[in-house]
# Entry
Amino acid sequence: MVFSSLTFLLYFLPLVWVVYTQVPLSYKNLVLCCASLVFYAWGEPVFLLLMVLSIGMNYAFGRLLGMARKAGMRQGLIKIHMGLAVGANLLFLGFFKYAGFVTGLIPGLAPLSVSLPIGISFYTFQAISYIVDVYRKKVEPRRDLLNFALYISFFPQLIAGPIVQYSQIEKQLDRHPAGFKMIDRGVWRFIWGLAKKVLIANPLGRLHTEISAIGGGSPGMAWLGALAFTLQIYYDFSGYSDMAIGIGRLFGFRFPANFDAPYTAKSVTEFWRRWHMTLSAWFRDYVYIPLGGNRVSRGRHILNLLIVWLLTGLWHGAGLNFILWGLYYALWLILEKYVFGDWLFKHSFISRLYTGLVVVVGWVIFAQTDLGAMATYLGAMIGLRPSAFAVSAAGPSLVRFLGRFGVVLLAGLIGLVPALSLFRERLFQRAKPAVFVIELALGILCLASLVSDSFNPFLYFRF
Amino acid sequence: MTEQKHKIPYTGIVIMIWLLFSLVNAFWPARAESEREKRSLARFPAVTAARLADGRFEEDFEAYAKDQILFRNALADLHTGLERSMGVREIRGVFITEEGALREALTLSPDLKPLRLPAYKAVSDLFRAGQRPVTLILVPPAAEICWEDLPCVAGGEALAKESRRARESLYSFETGVAGIECGDALRTAFEAGTKVFYDTDHHWTTAGAYAASSVIRQALAGEKVQEKETGWEFLASGTFSGSLSSKCGVFDREDVIEIARPNAELPILVRVSGEDGYRTSLYQRSALASPDPYKVFMGGNYGEVTITTGAGTGRELLVFKDSFFNSFVPFLVDLYDSIHVIDPRYYTGNGAMLLLEHPEAELMVFYGQQTFMTDEALGRLIPEVGL
# Structure
């Protein structure tokens, strides 16, 4: 189930919210937990077992860590215990996500076919954050299984984040009143997130798919496709995060923000402080800093960056292009840190242009999972015409793409302007009637778009 | 910045609307069919342990939710209207002209290799297997004939020229396959103000078929076509929204179907394989009241239809066709004693047997050019003949 499906919008969420608001306080978390498990099981019920196993396993690990500490066990043993717990989580993640990829790299070995449970990257990272925070004594091990299960499985952020570290939500699990203001903001945030996903990201996704199918086509088309993906992934991901945060508020939870106008960044370093912030925070807190961060020698620091970005790439997908993507960013981060970072900060326009180019090309690497297709596409961007693209008056053309997608593209670009976010916030604060109209209008438009996507005529007389 | 307090609970109203809509939507009686999309709508899926376990129930439920949502047509119209108001002139492969007519986008390959097209390969095989010439007639697409009407993003005259070149390359590729070019006749009629293609469908109109008939009849029989005033009567017989409306979701207008009736009507018998008895008309008027009024022409598409006429010409025709032929066949009945009409999509017999059963029949392949470019059914029917 996804947030932008009619099943979720018109059946699941209304039902869950009504039941949640009507049950006594002591049952609210039970309702949320059960709803989350149903949400996760929807479409892939077999992976519910994995989720339940993860919950049970990490709950037990956390309790055991607490008991070991209380029993006065040596720190070294406790650390081993923590390591085993983290290792078990990584084994889960590693098997389901990377077994096929790794076996595919071994010559003579048939790649293992393993289905990827949805959201496993997210909830495994959340579980690891819990284990490590318990180890670090940042939090106490959770005693009640129900609320721990809710932390791991809570449906708003289960399948696409934000990644919520346990310490950020610990107290909210016990008490999360959903007052009028929370719900007010939640609805506003959710509607905008839905609109970003359905009205901007989905059409631009189609544009990118069509241009990718012809290997990029002409240079103009290839850059258009790259721009489309750049916008698509932002609106899709940030839209989903907004929906998750909005839904969380409906139930009284405050989740951390995940995006902060990333395409306004003046450096790659800044970009990664604004993009998927919860993932960056997770890697910083649980990988980069334990490795020593930047408080080490230059050589060690560069190694730390390479490790973190290799893992970041791998986290995004089991593919050579994702590894390449991670290392691509590592390279730019290292160059900014040790070569031209200072110069860059003094030249605002050039730094923005440079960052934009690096990011757009980075997304091409990210989007093309086949290395050959990636090379073809990158080649198309510099004028090397792909074999899949034949120039035809009937075929795809830049003008034709702009005719179909130009307005959405323009809306996507305008939506990046920070002033618009400020305006939106001001509107929310000061003009409730306008907010009401906008919420209704966006809701109806999103429904219209979802229905239109399902338009499926049977062309009886096609032949 | 502090929020203003309002007496009206706007958010509460939004939530109430959402909940009410969801409730009514969940319990509204399901609809069986979509007249617009010409298909059955998904019903509530069967709940079984197996379907829940493998995800089929969940997938079908989403299809059900999308098909049965309240105000479905209105929502689809809203989306299409919004796109058009933003200047979008191409939706799902259909161009929308300034006047609101719909024209299907073309599929062309600039370096067309005829024998790589399954349908053309089949025509070539038909020539070899039948050991007699094959007449190939491809109806040009509306986007070629009416190219000036298209939005500027469509490709304009260059598109029209490329479409014509593709057709001409097929006509001239093989000596035993003789093409009859009817594009000029359609173009002349279009320039004279005749509506040669429907506004909501990819087919040509009866007037368009008539415009092409003069040059086709001339090529087949060396006979001048009779003038409309003395030869044919065109009767408006119904309205419909065609395939392109269904494809792109634009239902601004309807088309009028005309039936062409010759002033000197020949007696004919029409036998549809699988049906008992005979029909005495090429038209099935009862179809005009059905969801698919285009079926008025020959009653729709059948695997095999045999038309026996009193033409007395001693000629027999075996034609492999698509639906473009349905509205054209009345203009051929006086040229042949019998016409065997085969629709490869629905014919379940064997092409080699057909050739053996009709050893004297003239061979024809009659298709809309767009369909021909992507058709694979013809290739499955005609036996492959090695060179």
